[in-house]
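Can't paste images in this forum, so I'm doing it all in text. The chain is below; anyone willing to post the predicted structure tokens underneath?
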Amino acid sequence: MSSENALDLQYVHDSFQKSLKDDDDVIVDPYIEGYNELVKFLNLIGSVFSFVSSDVKSKIKIMEKHRAGEDSLYYESFKKMMKYEKETNLHEKNGFTSGSRTMLRLHRGLDFIRLFLKRLSELDDGVNTCTTCQNSYNETLAEFHPWYIRKAATLAMHALPSRPDLLKKVFGSEDKLSEAMEILPQTLQSCDEVYKRVEQLYSDFDFHGLP
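Text version of the structure:
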């Protein structure tokens, strides 16, 4: 994995590509590897999304326990996991931390990260990053957060730096930024494919409403 001080889009792309299984499934381990790298984006843009980042870390720890447990085979891919939990009603069992519910939170976070990253890359340098971030948040994660978190997050976004400064924080040097902009379209394509497959699986298993 890359330095903690910069986001490695090539690593994200490679991991998400490795996660694609058959025509409709996503393997959990490389998905988490790619996601772990991608979530650096939230850490690097400042404290505004620290609440999302810490939530992601706790969810990933839960999945790592599932992957290391005696039922690890059933948590190899999203489809296997959902099929297993649906057939055994584990997603409704009291005291059990459902993998499907846990990964739904990551899935929703991915929607925001990919949208904001895409819009940020397309922005003119003089355009306010705060408005772009707020719009991306409101169209994705906001509907799943209580009003006080939405309000705090929206206010905190006013502290976001300008586009050039934000990109420098995320990618580091000018050379790294140029490399990142070249690989970004492929990375976003991988993010979109992973998101689309997982979204369809949650629809197929009727798991979008997991509490």
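Strands lie at 20-21, 25-26. The mean pLDDT is 92.
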